[in-house]
Structures
1.
Amino acid sequence: MSLFFGLLCTSPDIQRVNPFPGDEGRINLIIRTYEPNVQCTSSPASSPSYGNCLNLVGKQMPNDKELKVFGRREFVTVKEVLPMTIVDSSKWITPDTRKCQLVVNTRGPVDNAAWYDIWGAAVAIDAMCGRKNQGGIAPGLGENKNLFAILKKYDAPVEGGIDTDE
């Protein structure tokens, strides 16, 4: 068992990171048990840069608590089309820095989840794997446990490559 600490500030500059501001300008501290289901990758070639993952998870990905339908495009009820990739957009990335990306996907047709839970899984991957310079996966997300999140190195598409889908 692990303890999950969430420090939630009320600054409008970091509202995306902290979706539940305290009353009257106070800070809320959420402490609850959390059982992470995280598997780290061992390949250094797939490892993102730890600082870039902190930036992606902390500042760039959605984290609201509203339940949404995640799934493949062909299902009309889907609000979040999968697979989905969120790539770190830091301005301070240098050519030798390994960009970070979060991939959210599903093993089933559709599932209901809040971005907050996917964000929590990404935080767990980053905390457990990123500090060892590894990527990782958190399976079993969503109400039906069909969703999974992968935090890994971003592999940019090759320009001028050969299209093999013909």
2.
Amino acid sequence: MSASLTIRSSPSRLRSLGNGAAGLTSMRTRRGFGTTGPRWTTWGFIGLGRMGYPMASNLRTKIPKGDTLLIHDRDAEATARFVEEASSETVADGKGAEIQVLPTPREVAEASSTIITVLPGPSHVMHVFHSILAGALPPTKHRSERLFIDCSTIDPSTSREVANAVHSTNQGRFVDAPMSGGVVGARASTLTFMVGASSRSGQLVERVRPILQLMGSRILHLGEQGMGLSGKLANNYLLAISNIATAEAMNLGLKWGLDPTKLGELINSSSGQCWSSSVNNPVKGVSPDAPAESDYKGGFGVELMKKDLKLAMNAADAVGAKVELGQKAVDVYQAVEAAEAGKDFSVVYKWLGDSR
């Protein structure tokens, strides 16, 4: 479990989050504002990784053109690329909200009504919210209650700790909303979001739902705070194992001399079908948009799959749930990461062939 989240600044820890985007200029579309005109909204998005980047891109194109999207990531190249691509798309089709890059998570939160975070792990979420909650935030532009939507995959206990810090200091409302669907789903806006939100917060879920629908196609409210993450970890435990099984089955069939596309068609029309076989098949030529088509570049990193699997096993241990295959799967991903770091987790298939 992560260290306790206290509401005070920690300069040495926060500096590592705030330096990435320093010096970048904002992309601003000038426009006039009448005194009786529409009430433009300011959105915040923190975390432009493999999942966050396409999610933020879809959000930008779907919110009203008069709105503003504030972004932050400690990777200056990611924010610069996002601004460049957004600028090109705006010139081409005239769509999309104004973009501004801010140097710290705190500054994003100060200026935004809704803040979406997509971060790699528990420590990153803790660091970001230490920064955001280091002192009282100013009122939002329209005096609405500030909304934090954390789409990171972390352990439920850390998420509940952060939620309690937000709620106990009256800084806004916080929900956990991890997603499933991978990079392919993030690009296509077909993600499934699993929401954990207090039933004592009135219409909170209904407030969150249309926001998530800008980036996904299905929103499931799984229960109270942290339950979204519990559902996500159960799903990713299954995904971690089914990915290995798919790689082994495809490898086995090809060793027997079966054609990979015919084997893929068979599996995907039979009882062995799963997401790893149909959407993210590890063999080139079976799933058109899978990372296998580009030497396993992009996609869901093997290191992230290992992280999620460990989070699921720790959460299982906390409630005494027996998980027989988990440790073996961790061993496999540990070995694959050592050989193929940074690649999509379906690279397990390549590792099976290379390791013999």
3.
Amino acid sequence: MSAAQFELLNPPTDAISAIKFAPASLQLLVASWDKNVYLYDTSVSGGRLLRTYQHRAPVLDVCFGDNDEDAFTTGLDWDVRHLNLSTGTQTVLSSHTAGVKSLVYSSQHHILVSASWDSTLHIHHPSSPSSPAASIGLPSKPFSISLTPTKFVVAMATRALHIYDLASLASSSSSLPQTATTTTDSQPPPTAIPISVEPWQRRESSLKFMTRAVACMPNDAGYASSSIEGRVAVEWFDPSPDSQARKYAFKCHRLANDQGIDVVYPVNALAFHPVHGTFASGGGDGFVALWDGVAKRRIRQYQR
């Protein structure tokens, strides 16, 4: 192991479902199936466990808000929670009717979006605690979500993708009736109010098999998606024929067995570099690969 990387001490006791770095420091949030969220200081070798936040059920996703003290969590208890990392106080912002797979926070529009297996999105305004969440119905279960400064992308079952304008989501969900907030598990969660917001674009994945992950480009130009069939597609938001002609897909995360036959692995994770625009893919083969999407080549592969 090189000096540039190290294994965290005091890791979770079960599978890790999500990790996120703080916006202004080297603090790291880790969500786990052991029903806890862990906060680490990674500025020192080996890391330092700062605090553990217990939940009622396995935690599937976490993200930071506008600063290093505000975070949001969600998981198999169906709740979307605001977590004050300094005090440990948890506030239930809304409750879905099934497990919540993902959530993302837009610092430009100050909204939190959660995506649940009940086939809905909830739009929250954390800076207005008395504002209820807005609920948007989806045609099928969401598998992965991502956003740019202006767009929100949700990849769903049946290979469907919806692209929303974030400004439209923020404005449509900002004028709902005020309600009391929920601060403890003993109180009923706030009821999300259904609203109707048309997607900016509706698309079908250019990959033939089920989508596993989607990640937006940091330059707000497009997104990458991956499937269970060891492929990644790169597409652009611009609907013009010239722009759509640039989209492409490629094979990855495949290993030849003893008979020389390729074993195909799902591509479970995608992440773009926030500055350079290169992206990483993580596959079921246990490898992480770095890609240059413009030059259409692999830069590096990290061994298992």
4.
Amino acid sequence: MDKEMGVTQAEVGSSTHHSLSVKRESSELEQATPRRGTFGQKLKAHLKRWWWLHLIIGIAVLLLVTLILVYVGFPKISQSGVDNSTLQITSLIISNPTETSFHLNQAAIITSSSAYHPQLDAFNATVGLQGAIPYGTITIPPIHAIANSSTNIDQDVQIGDLDAFMQFNLAFFNEPSVNMAIQGSTGLHEMAFPETTVNYDKTVTLIGLNKLAGFNVTAFSILPTPLHNGTNMLGTVLIPNPSVFTFAMGNVTMALSVAGQSIGTSTLADLTITPGNNSYAMTSITNQTAVLELLSTTYKDGLLPVDIVGQSSVYDGVHLTYFESALASVTQHVVLNVGAALGGLL
């Protein structure tokens, strides 16, 4: 029994020794193998070690975003603001015309819905019919682009392309509206942003004269004795002008005819057409022999259907061909009760 107990104690001692040995090896293994931390602990450790690298990356990204905003975003925003603005011409006065120039006084309102209110530098812009060759260049003054900005142009304009200006006037005299293109480029300034260049490309729709619709001879009388210059008829003409244009044309001469037969000429002296319905004095030199023959044969009722076509426009002794071609393109038809006017002489 003692022997058996001795064996058992030896076995127990051996087992205890083996257990301690396993625990010791397990502890050593745990110490040799590092414990895995959480994601937050790892991130904290990473940032603690590499903070300077992340700072450099952050500064670089911020710089890149700023550069993109300044040199890409801001120019695009600026151009968009200019493109979305509107231009309304409220008055356009052409005076002192010559064959190669005229004086321009133009008032306009620029409307912008942009939250930004930049300053645009003065710049030169070409002007002409939309889609056609520009006829000249104007200088647009500096503009502060607020919600509604007023601008005024007061300058002499050189007609760079006479044919283009003729085409503009032909369209203006004949059409109910014309599209005028104004194009240029200028510098734009906004707060601390660097100056950027924007394109100014606007098309303004202007009311035209529509073949001088509404033109009429509202009164006329035949002189019993012609004046020293041959004038033998006086009258008043109505010329409606629904546009914002005012233009000086000088002495305007018009040819008078009936069924293709010339019966004389009429003159509007020192004519300046202004907006609205305007009456102007007219003097005429008529071929009374031809008129009496027409009344005695074809138009026995005394009502004479007269065609009136612009013939010349002379300002300070100079023919304004760009007005003359426009006047010649429009024919007015009026019926004059010449029989009643002649009866008044009896």
